[in-house]
Each structure stands twice: as structure tokens, then as C-alpha cells.
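Hi L.,

As promised, P-loop containing nucleoside triphosphate hydrolase:
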Amino acid sequence: MSGASVHASASGPKSTREATKLLGLTGSVGMGKSTVASMFRELGIAVMDADATVHELYAPNGAAVAVVREMFGDQVVDASGGVDRRALGEIVIGDAEKMAALERAVHPLVDRAREDFVASREGDVAIVFDIPLLYEKGYETTMDAVCVVSTGCEKTQRARVLGRDGMTPEKFEGILARQMPDAEKRARADYVIDTSLSLEETRARVEEVLRAVVERR
């Protein structure tokens, strides 16, 4: 399938179009999910990035700022009026109860943003939702299909992640502890994209997955 053969917007009267397919895109840290998301964008498919959405909610005048301030006080709001993510992290990371409370407060705002995003893309053949903790938070039930990005190799994953600025083995292990094992994600997925292959091969697989999702019944 060439990039020109799948378009982000369907043509023809609305009554004759198939419903927009919602594809969840996930994968453990360091597996190449961001690269794959970019490939979907290059094919004209809208991608909603869950992490970027939270950043927007935490930005000055963001919908989550007042909520987070009410929960944890002025100490978690920086001089610009946005959420100080480092200060917030120092409070909730390692405290399961506070982390759960934060997620209960913020997730409805993320869900609302997702609904607005879907509404804004009416007529698209597919929308991709880039959600790192998709399975862990149960979002697979809201998708038509799920695609997992993986290298299939822990050694490659570790090398990629530890090569990032500011990353340490301890931080890496902490991230892994919050994520479902890669093998389990792959077993549960409707589609798997292997990023241990060349970029050309990965791009071809992205196109193949997109075709399958669009044609999915």
C-alpha cells in the first residue's frame, strides 16, 4: 500500500462513509512508538498523543492546573501558572495513594480532550491514539483495534533508553515496573510493528496495519 492510497479524510456523503476507526498505539519505553506515530502522521492520519495532551492540561491556563493546585497546594504550580511537573512528581511518585488520586482527577480531563479530538476529525478514515499505558489503564476497550510497537529484544530496548539524557538504570527499572511486560502486550495486540527492522520495512508494516484497520469490520 502506498502512502497515497490511504487518506485521512474519506470522500463522499457522510451517510455512505464507514465509521472512523480508532487505533490504539502503545508499546513499552524505548520500543520506537514515537517513530511509528510519526509514520502514521506522514500517511495523513491524525495522531493524538496522550503525554502531549497531559502537558497541555498542565500548561498555564490548562484545565488541570486548578485541579492539581486544589489537591496539592501552590507548591505544585510554577511562576508561569502551570503545573510544576518536577514538584508534582516529588509528591506522587512512590506514593501509590496520591498517584491514584491524581490519575482519578486528571484522567476525566484527558478523556474529554480525546472526545473533542474525535469530534474534530469527523470523516477521517482512522485516528491513532498514542497511549503509553493503554493496557495498564484499560483503554483498549475504547479502541477498535490495538497496535503494539516492539523491538522484541530487551537488550535493544535497554540500550535505547539508557542512551537518553538524564536516564539512569534505576529510572529505567522504575518505568518498567509500571508497564505491562512487552511479551504480554504483543500477545494481546491486534497488530504488532517490529522496529528492529529497517525504517523502510517498518514503514511498510505501518502501511499494512493502516490498511487492515481501515478495512476492519
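The longest strand covers residues 21-26.

Thanks again for sending the construct details.

K.
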